[in-house]
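Lab channel / #folding
Pinned by the channel admin:
"Please post every new chain as: sequence first, then the structure tokens as a reply. Keep commentary short and put observations after the output so the thread stays searchable."

First post following the new format, from NK:
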Amino acid sequence: MNASLIVQTIASVLAASVPLIYAGIGETLTEKVGVVNLSLDGTILLSAMVGFAAAYTTGSVPVGILAAMVVGALMALVVAYGSIALKQDQVAIGFVLTLLGADIASFLGRPFVRIPGPRVPHMPIPILADIPVVGPILFQHNILVYLAYALLIGSWVWIAHTQPGLRLRAVGERPEAAFARGLSVNRLRYLYTAAGGALVGLAGATYSLSVKLGWSHGHTAGMGWIALAIVIFGGWHPARVALGAFLFGAFKSLGSILQPVYPNVPTQIFQAAPFALMIVALLLVSSNIEERLPAYVPARLRRAIGSLLRGAPPAALGQRFE
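Reply from TO:
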């Protein structure tokens, strides 16, 4: 494989990983505030359909993106309202919404199946796009890829280095203490759940308008579950979540590269391999990896690997606050 092909492959992996970055960071914000939204798979499907349908009928890509984000926010708010106001189980509500969203997308999306439609225009950044190697990889994409860069940096700064981010973490870790300090716990949970859901909706629109153009039944099936797994793999940290999204995209691209090299291997093996590797990664993260490393690994390296892979969920995740 020559250098230009490697650069092109990395650039395509980065672009294909953007929807998972949006969904993963959106779910990270939601879970950081203590709410579990398991509706991601159905939400991404429904928002992908709505985004494409709105863009197709209006002829405006921004309208399609906005419509998809509204759908994602509304789906997430159903989870929050069912938990906070109706005092129902968040996991059960999210799972039902996943099934409902997929069925609604299939039913309402019939007129838009496999028809050509608008797409997010290619938009290389002048000067930066001409930088050797780095330019083609990072700066020869569309606006949704560049927004993912900004979201990654902005969410990390917001969560770790701002007062609102401190309040966000307080609500997810110690809601009683946050309430005692004068914070409106449930209002913040509604706010961040809606914001996270809007980002999940943006992930759906990114699929149908940029990555996997158009709409078809089961268009993004399984991507919501992968996004949830990536949040756990990333230890609820935006940068690690983005890394997990990129690794999953790389695994999928590796399968398409290896298929011509090994034509006798069934295609299903390469299609399923990224999901199996994600399960292995989750097992490594959830287990005490430091104790499982060989004895000859130095203690300092052992601790570094453990701190890199270890991630703890917010202490009040999934717990209602009254």
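NK: The chain has 14 helices and no strands.
TO: also worth noting, The chain has one domain: 3-309.
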